[in-house]
Amino acid sequence: MTNCSLELYQPINILKPIDDNIWMVDGPIIHMDFVLGAKVPFSTRMMVVKMPDGGLWLHSPIAPDEELFAQIDALGEPTSIIAPNSIHYWYVPDWVERYPNAKVYAVPGLGDTAKRPLPIDETLSDGDTDDWYGIFDLLVFPGSVVTEAVFHHRPSKTVILCDLIENFEPRRVQSWWLRQMLKLAGAADPDGKAPIDLRMTFWKYRKIFAEKAKQMIAWNADIVIMAHGRPYLENGTKELRRAFRWVKGIE
C-alpha cells in the first residue's frame, strides 16, 4: 500500500478562510503504520484562529514549510499551539522551534505516550478556555487508545475535531482496496464517521462519551472541520447527529 495515495486538497499549505478570523490549511499526505509493515495514506489539515488580542491559535499543526511560515507571520504571532488528540501532535515541536513563545496545550496523557519529546505547557480539560477570551467551547473525549479534544469556535459556529469524524472522499482515493476499506470502516463520504476500529476503543468510556457527544451537538454548529476528508461547511449540527448516530442516545 506504500504507493497508494490520496488526491491532495489543493492548494496545500495555504490559509483558506472559513469565516472571520478562522482559516483552514490543507497539508501534504502522511503515511500511518497499518499491519505487516503496510502504510495507509492520510490527508492532513490544520486550523488557525486569530484571537481578540491578535495572537494566533494553531490546531493540529501540519508539516511546516517556509511559505506557510511566511503566511502565519503576516497574519500574527502564534501564542497557542494545540495537540488535540493522542496522534495529532508530531509537528508541534517544529512549530515551537519557530515560535518559542507559544504555549503548548495537549490532551491528557500525551506527554507519556508521544513518540517524540513534546514541550507541553498545559493539559486540556472540559470548558478550560480562559486563555482564549471565551471564544471557544471545549470538550475532551476520553478513549483507551485515542483521547481527543473537540473545540467549538463560537463566533463562526465551527466545530473543530480530528478523528472523531473521518470523511474520506472515495473519488480522491487512488487505490480500489483502500476505497473499500474506508467504506467498510464507515469513514467514507457522504457518511463519514469515526472508523469502526476507533469507535470500539471508546467502549469503556461509552457513558461519558455519549454525554459529551450530546453536549457537542447542543452547540448548534453550522460548520464542522475534521482533519481527514471533506469538511462540512453547512448543516453542521445535522452532520454531527448523523456522524455520531452510533453513540447510544444520539438520534
Helices and strands in order:
Blueprint: E1 16-19, E2 22-33, E3 39-50, E4 56-59, H1 66-75, E5 78-83, H2 92-98, E6 103-106, H3 110-113, E7 122-123, E8 136-141, E9 148-153, E10 158-160, H4 176-185, H5 196-200, H6 206-218, E11 223-225, H7 236-243
Parallel strand pairs: 4-5, 5-6, 6-7, 10-11
Antiparallel strand pairs: 1-2, 2-3, 3-4, 8-9, 9-10
Alpha-carbon distance between the two ends? 37 Å
Could you give me the name of the CATH homologous superfamily?
Answer: Ribonuclease Z/Hydroxyacylglutathione hydrolase-like
Radius of gyration, rounded? 17 Å
Question: Which residues sit in consecutive blocks of at least 5 with pLDDT less than 50?
Answer: none
**Total number of domains:** 1
The number of strands is: 11
**CATH architecture tag:** 4-Layer Sandwich
Tally of helical runs: 7
